[in-house]
Amino acid sequence: MRPLAKILSIAVTVMTVWVTAVWAQGTLPPDFGEWRRVADRAAEAIDNDRASEAAMDSLRDQLSLWSEDFSSESSRSRISVLTLEAQLKRLGPVPEGGEAEDVADERRQLELSLSEATAPVRRADLALTEAEELIRSIDVLLRERQTQILLEPGPFPLKPELWGPALRELSESFRLIILEFQTGWVHEKQRNQPQSSLPQMLFFLAIAFVLLTRGMRWTDRALQGMIRDRQHLSATRWIAVFLLSYGQVVLPMLGVLAFSKAVYATDLPGLRGDVVLSILPLMTFELLTARWLGERVFSRNDRPLLLVNLSEKEKRKGRRASTVLGAMLALSSLFVELARYESWNQGTESVVFFVITVIAAYFLGLLGRLVTRHAGSMRAEEDGPLTAIGQLVSLLGRYTIVVSLIGGVLATIGMTRGASYLVFSSTRTMFLVAFLLVAQRVIQKIFSALNGRDDEDSPLAAVLAGIGIVILSLPVFLMSWGAQVSDLHQIWRNIADGLTFGDLILSPETILLLVVVYAFGHGVTRLSQSFLRDNILPKTSLDAGGQTAVVSGAGYIGIFLAALIALSVAGINLGNIALFAGALSVGIGFGLQNIVSNFVSGIILLIERPVSEGDWIDVNGQMGYVRDISVRSTRIETFDRTDVVIPNSDLIAGTVTNYTRGNTVGRVIVPVGVAYGTDTRWVEGILREIAESHPMVLANPAPSVVFQGFGADSLDFEIRAILRDVNWMLTVKSDLNHEIARRFVAEGIEIPFTQRDLWLRNPEALRGEAPAAKPSTLPVSQAITPASSAPTPPDIDDMDGSDSDGDGR
After folding, report:
1. For residue 690, what are the CA distances in angstroms to 681, 707, 727, 746?
2. Coil, strand, or helix at residue 501?
3. For every residue of 188-229, which 3-state class applies, written as one string?
4. From CA 386, how far away is CA 372, in angstroms rounded?
5. CB 238: neighbour CB atoms within 10 A?
6. Are 757 and 780 in contact (CB under 8 A)?
7. How far apart are CA 319 and CA 325, in angstroms?
8. At what angle do helices 271-297 and 235-245 cross, to 10 degrees?
9. Taking 90 as the threshold, does the pLDDT of residue 403 lie above it?
10. pTM, whole model, 2 decimals?
11. Residue 504, strand partner residues
12. Exposed, middle or buried, 267 (CB in 10 Å: 0-12/13-18/19+)?
């Protein structure tokens, strides 16, 4: 939990550096003489390696401020250098035949000014390089010291002779703290000061007493009142319950701060008391936050804020383990400060940190086992693999189990500093991960409340917000493992300076500018498309397909221009992009040629528009209506209501039949057959009447009836008619067939159908008779009297024809 307390230090440092940089831009150049003295002192401290860690941190902060000052000076002076260079470039090179005297004088003056302007930039750059190198050396030195302390074995903590002196030294530290308060009381009493500070002290003590004794009870009562008699909590009430639950941390923290204020009001604390009072809020925060997280994760309520698949007994163990770990974290913070101030000997440090580290390692391992057990149930299906979050939670649980074992072993063999660092850093990491899971749940509920929903699905915005919180928590993760504020500041400076890829420099500022400009261009493009589609194109003579093509083309052009403008504004050299595109084209030629072919075909379709949305087309045997044309494929809806996606290259390179291109007028052909002997002119007149009477058939050109010829079984006719809307072809064809059938029945016209005679060889086999001397052939129409016994079925090879049911067809 210490990293959370150091966040304020980060903010103060960053603000100080920023204010210093801004102030430096409007003041005189840096005092290089003073810088030389600071640099020499830093170099001497690094060479001697005798300064304390606090002194080294202070020296590093000074060097960081100087580096910011030099960076500002270099940036400020570089502006004039760039201006002079631009002026010289505008003059151009000296002509071969010489140049006019006034131009030559101007050139010499500019070159002299450029030389004078370059000197401060060069000096600031050199000083900046020296400062950064000194900072890097201090970081290496401090890191080596910390590593040595962590890896250096101390006394064996299980030696009985170490425990007595360790307890006496620990007791002596607390006795001296109490003695300081007693001495301060006597001193203040002699000066008659207690009466003057008594009202203020009593006021803060009263606040502390109320908050510490009643704060958590008030919070619990309010929580029970909000969830009592409610089977379901809405998203809004869920958020209110969560925020109210954090009062279990906030109210006691305020009570501890009020208590500290009351003690400070008496001027009783001495140096040791000041150490304890300064660390007391952090200890309270670590203890209460650990307890609060345990209640949220291993909730005892029937409707928990986080659902954990554990039994009530296991949840109770989880809550107890979280509280104990919070207490051990608080004691660790206190003992670290006391050991640093009192200069405990190695035996005392070994014993004290052995006890709290072993206890913390045991309960950390218990938490790891519970987390691993819960992660085993995080599956999308009963017998399926773990979900992504389940895998992360399982990995975290197994990691804590391993850390608890390693930490306990290291503490036992005497490496208590390393064991304490490993166990408590892992504990802070685990609590931070739990806090992030709770925060993600809160974000999900916030978005659900904003959308007026109570479901458990996380919208995309909630997921992105959760990812953003994880990214923002990375400094806290680093500080959990010992990173200093100066280290984070250096990391941020490196990120702000940008990552270099050849001639391309990507910094957060560049990326943010690129995203903002592109988003603005993308929004303008979409707005322009909407304006074209709704206000301009409807007033033109373009059809719906042409309007869609114009809107799509405007979108592609707008997005392309937005990307180019964003790259230019961000300062990215388009020449590098061209080189990258040239290299990418080689890969396109080999592996992406089909995609590029379909893309180009899509552009051609949108420009030439051989097919448009709503057209009835037939391509590669697939017939249907065009529903959507994109740059890669075209989607058609067939008559059985299925969607078929066709690559655009098939529409360009293949044969496409468009039944409704330009207009919906089309022809229908209805074949009709009549029996031989029917009057053909009579049939022709009836068919013409039927066609002319249908409302979908155009009168001009008039429908025609064609006598096609003499078929094998009938006289063949065709009705050929032009329809107003070819999309009704099947309906019109069905209507005409119905009317033809009705009129032919009424007029007594026979519609022939195919008839076949079936002849059987050896018909006596069906009657069970002996075969005759000479085979005879009888038609099936002869009466066949079956034998009393079941006849033997004829061999299929003895049958002529394909009809076996004897109906003569």
Report:
1. 14, 16, 20, 13
2. strand
3. HHHCCCHHHHHHHHHHHHHHHHHHHHHHHHHHHHHHHHHHCC
4. 12
5. 23
6. yes
7. 10
8. 150
9. yes
10. 0.64
11. 501
12. middle
User: What is the DSSP code string of 1-37?
Assistant: -HHHHHHHHHHHHHHHHHHHHHHHHTSPPP-HHHHHH
For residue range 86-135, list pLDDT tens digits in order.
Answer: 877 777 777 777 777 777 778 788 888 878 778 887 888 888 888 888 88
- 784: confidence class by pLDDT, cuts 50, 70, 90: very low
Q: Say which residues have a Cβ less than 8 Å from residue 150's Cβ, sequence separation at least 6.
A: 415, 417, 418, 421
Structure tokens given for 509: 């500022």
Q: What is the pLDDT of residues 537-589, one digit of tens each?
A: 888 877 666 677 788 778 888 888 888 888 887 777 666 666 666 666 666 66
Q: Residue 536 to residues 274, 529, 539: CA-CA distances in angstroms?
A: 75, 10, 6
Question: CA–CA separation, 483 vs 480, rounded Å?
Answer: 7
Angle (CA) 140-144-150 rounded to 5° is 145
Please give the single-letter amino acid code of residue 424: F
Report yes or no: 656 and 623 within 8 Å, Cβ to Cβ: no
Distance separating alpha carbons of residues 744 and 751, to the nearest angstrom: 8
- Strand pairing of 715-723 and 666-674? antiparallel
Distances (CA, A) of 621 to 431, 515, 609, 626, 733: 63, 46, 21, 14, 21
Alpha-carbon distance of 801 to 264, in angstroms, equals 118
Q: Are 633 and 648 in contact (CB under 8 A)?
A: yes
Mean pLDDT of 409-414: 90
Which tokens is 30 given?
């840096």
Q: Is the separation of the CB atoms in 399 and 426 below 8 Å?
A: yes
Phi, psi of 614 (to 5 degrees): 95, -10
End-to-end CA separation in angstroms for the chain: 95
Mean per-residue pLDDT, 284-311: 82
- One-letter amino acid identity for 397? G
SS3 state of residue 458: coil
Overall size of the chain counted in residues: 809
How far apart (Å, rounded) are the C-alpha atoms in residues 60 and 439? 35
Q: Residue 10, Cβ neighbours under 10 Å: how many? A: 19
Q: Distance between CA atoms of 472 and 479, rounded to whole angstroms?
A: 13
Q: What average pLDDT score do residues 261-273 get?
A: 78
Nearest to 333 by CA among 557, 746, 74, 4: 4
Which of 333, 349, 348, 212 is closest to 280 using CA atoms?
333
Q: Is the pLDDT of residue 648 over 50?
A: yes
Single-letter code of the amino acid located at 28 = L
Tell me which residue of 561, 574, 565 sits closest to 503, measured CA to CA: 574
State the DSSP code for 153: -
The answer to whether 789 and 766 have CB atoms below 8 angstroms apart is: no
Q: Judge residue 8's burial from the number of C-beta atoms within 10 Å of its C-beta, 0-12 exposed, 13-18 middle, 19 or more buried.
A: exposed
Q: What residues contact 608, with CB distance under 8 A and at least 6 apart? A: none
Distance between CA 363 and CA 356 in Å, rounded? 11
Comparison of pLDDT for 393 and 767, the residue scoring more: 393
